[in-house]
Amino acid sequence: MGIIVAKFGGSSVADAPQIRKTKAITEADPARRYVVVSGPGKRSKEDEKITDLLYQFKDQAAAGQATEAEETFSVIEERFVGLEEELGVAVGMAGLLAEIRERLTAGASRDYAASRGEYLNARLIAAFYGYDFVDAEGLVLFDRDGGFLADETDAALSAELAKHERAVIPGFYGSLPGGGIKTFSRGGSDITGAIVARAARADVYENWTDVSGFLMTDPRVVENPKPIPRLTYREQRELSAMGASVLHEDAITPARVAGIPIQIKNTNTPGDAGTMIVRDDDRAALRAGLKGIAGKKGFAILRLYKSAAGPKLPLLARLLVLATRFGLSIESAPGGVDALALILSGVPDREGLEAFAKTIVDEINPDHLEIRKEVTLLAAVGNGITADARAAVGMTRALRDAGIRPLLIEAGANDISILVGVDDEEYEPALRAVYAALA
Amino acid sequence: MGIIVAKFGGSSVADAPQIRKTKAITEADPARRYVVVSGPGKRSKEDEKITDLLYQFKDQAAAGQATEAEETFSVIEERFVGLEEELGVAVGMAGLLAEIRERLTAGASRDYAASRGEYLNARLIAAFYGYDFVDAEGLVLFDRDGGFLADETDAALSAELAKHERAVIPGFYGSLPGGGIKTFSRGGSDITGAIVARAARADVYENWTDVSGFLMTDPRVVENPKPIPRLTYREQRELSAMGASVLHEDAITPARVAGIPIQIKNTNTPGDAGTMIVRDDDRAALRAGLKGIAGKKGFAILRLYKSAAGPKLPLLARLLVLATRFGLSIESAPGGVDALALILSGVPDREGLEAFAKTIVDEINPDHLEIRKEVTLLAAVGNGITADARAAVGMTRALRDAGIRPLLIEAGANDISILVGVDDEEYEPALRAVYAALA
C-alpha cells in the first residue's frame, strides 16, 4: 500500500461540517496516513480570519486595552470551543486557549500568534479522526535568519513520522534554533504539505482546496474556463508566478525534489478530477500544447534608445547597476538594434521610477527614453509552446482582432511560455480574446 | 539652388565607361557640387581588388620578394595608367604611382596602402569632371586612438569646401594627429560621403551604387523583392544591422546629425526611384507598416533554468560578468519564470562557448543549461510594427505553415522590429515564407 499525504486548506476546515467532509475523504483511502491542516478559514465573506484575530488580541494586550482584548479573545474562544463541541471531541480546548492567551499576553511573538490557528485546528482534527497529533514545532526547522532548513527538516520529520502510523500535522509554521515559532509566508500550509509528503516518502501529495484544480484561466475574467487535468511542476510554477493562485509558489520545490506528484482536489466536490502536477519529464504532460493562460498586473517597460552605442553588454551592465541602486526588480532585458528595454516588476511609485529615469538620462545620455507604466503581462504556458508557434499565432491574431495593441511579445527565454504585454486597462478584454482563440 | 553631395561606390567607378556614367549623372544636376569616390572596384568576378593588390605589394616588398612585388605593382600601374589614358586626362599618374611605390617600399602603413586606390581614383575623376581635387588627408580627422573626430572634421572640411565651387574628394580615409593615414572600416566611403554632406550643409546626400536602393529583402534568397521607396534613418539602421548590406552601418550618423536625407540610387539605371532615407519623424515614412525583412546568421541562444532562484537582477548581473570575462557580445537578455536567456552575437568557436557554459555551471549552478548554436535572426522592420501586430501574426503563421519552429520571438525592445530566431539551416525557407506572407 502506498502513502498519501493530504493537506486540507482553510475553507476545507472552516467549520464542523467541512471537517466532517475531510474525514470522509481521508477515510475513503487508507493510504491517507498523514494529514496537514490549515487554521479554520472564513465561513462567509464577513467572517473574521482567526489569524487576524490572534494578531489583534496580541496588539490590544500589548497596548493595555484590556476590555478590547477580552472581547477579541472571546471570539477566538467561541470558535474553537464551538468546534470542540460540534465535533464531539475532548482536547482540553479551554486549557489550550488559556495557555495561548497567557503566552500572548506575556509578549510571545507575532509568528507564535499567527501559528495558533493551525495548531489548535490540528489538535481538534487529530482527535476527530483518531489520528496522532504531531506538532510542526521542533520538526519543521528554520535557521537563525528564518531560512528554511530543507534537509534537516526532512531528517527530523521522517524520523518522527516513522513512529506514527497515522497523524495530523499543523501547516504554516515550524521553529527557530532558539525554539521560537517561525511561519512561512501566507498560504504556507501548502509548503508544509509538500515537506510532509517528502518526509513520508509519499506516493502522492494531495492538496485539497475549494476549487477543482487549476483552470485554464482566471474564472473572475473568463466564464467557466476549462480545467487543466495534468501539468508539470515547471508549467505550474510558470502559471503560478504569472498570476494563477491555486497553490503557494514555493510549495512545489519539496515535492519536486522528491519527485512526488501533487494532486489538487476540491473538498466540496471530491469526485472532480482536479489537476495532477507531475514530473517535468512526464510523457502525458509533455505533449506540446497550451496548458493555461495567466495574467499579472503591475509591470513597467522602460525602453532606452541610443544610436551606435557600441556593444550592448556594458550598457546593460550599467543599467543593472542603476536598477540595483534604485531597488528595482528586472524580469527581462530584451535588446534590439540601438535599443534596450527593461521589464520591471515590483515597480515603485511614480517618483521612484522618475528618479530612476532621470539618473539614466544623466549617466547614460540616451537619445530617447520611454517608460510605460501599468503594464499587464499575459502568459500562455505549455511545454514546447515557443517552438510550436500555434499559440503565438493565436495570441497575436486574437489581440489584433480585438483591436488591442501589444506592447511587447516575448517567447524563447524558456520553451514553455509566450509573454504578451498590454495596458492594464486592456487586461480583461485581452485575456478573454486570447482564451477564446486558444482554449 | 541647393547642394547635393554624390558618392559613387566601387562598381560605379570601376573603369572608364562607368566613370563616364558618373560624369553624366553629376552634370545632369548642377547642384551636384561635391563628389566622393571609392577606389576602382572589380570589373568582373575574377578581377582583383586594388586594395588587396596594394596590401600585397607592401607585404612582398617588406619580405624582400622583389620580383613578385614588381609583378604586383605592374598590375596596379596598368590599371591606373590605363584609366588616365582612357579618360583622356593628364594627372601625372606615372609620377603619383612612383611616389606611392617609394613610400610603400620605405614601410608606409597598411592604412596608407589601402587608401591609395581612393586617392588615385579621386585625382583622375576630378580631372575628368574638371572639378577641384580636395584630399581627405588633413580634413577627415581621427584622434590618436583612431576614433573619428566628428566636430573637428566638420569644422576643417566645411572651411575647405567653402573655397571650392566644385570638388571631388576621396572616400574611405582621413588622417591621424601625427599625419599618418587612417581608414574607416571596409565600405567606409559611405561614411566619408555622409561627412562631406554634413560639412557642405547639403540638401541631400546621394549614394550611388549598383543596386536600385534597398529591397524589401535579400534578392539572393527571394526572387525580385519589391524596392523600398522611403524609410527612416532608424529603420535603415535596423535593417542594415540585421543584414541588409546596401549602406555602411555607420554612414547614417553624420547625415542624421545634420538631418540630411540620403538617396540611394543605381549608377547603371539612374531612372530608378531608389530609396530615400529620411528623418525619423518623416510623416510619409512613419505610416505604420512593414518596410523590410532582413536576416543575419551567427547568433547563439543560451538558456539557463534555475528554479526559485530569487530576484533575476543579481543573476543577470553575474552572467554579464562571466560573458565579459569570455569576451562575448550580448544582444538581448530575455527572462522568463525560473529562466533567463542570452542572445549572443560574435559567437566564438565551439570551445569558447563550451568553456563559457562550464563556468556558468560551476559558478551559478543552474538546474539546466542549453546552448543553441547556429541561430539566424529574422527581423521584420517598420515603424510601429510591434504595436501593429499584423507583422507578428503574419510572421508566426507563415513559419508555422512552412513547418518551421521558431526558437525565439521578440518584439517590444523597440517599436520598429520583430525578431524571430530560427536554425541557420532554415534561414532561406523561413525568409521566403515570411516575405511571401507579409510583403
The count of DSSP E runs of length 2 or more, i.e. the number of strands of chain A, is 17
Largest interface: A-B, 66 and 65 residues
How many helical stretches of chain A? 15
Biggest pleated-sheet summary of chain A = 8 strands, mixed
- Binned, the helix content of chain A reads 40-55%
Q: Runs of chain A with pLDDT <50, length 5+?
A: none
Tertiary shape of chain A: globular
- Name the beta content range of chain A: 15-25%
Strand arrangement in the largest pleated sheet of chain A: 3-4-2-1-7-9-10-8
Average pLDDT reading of chain A: 91
**What is the rounded Rg of chain A?**
25 Å
Cα end-to-end separation of chain A: 38 Å
Q: What oligomeric state do these chains adopt?
A: homodimer
Secondary-structure class of chain A = alpha/beta
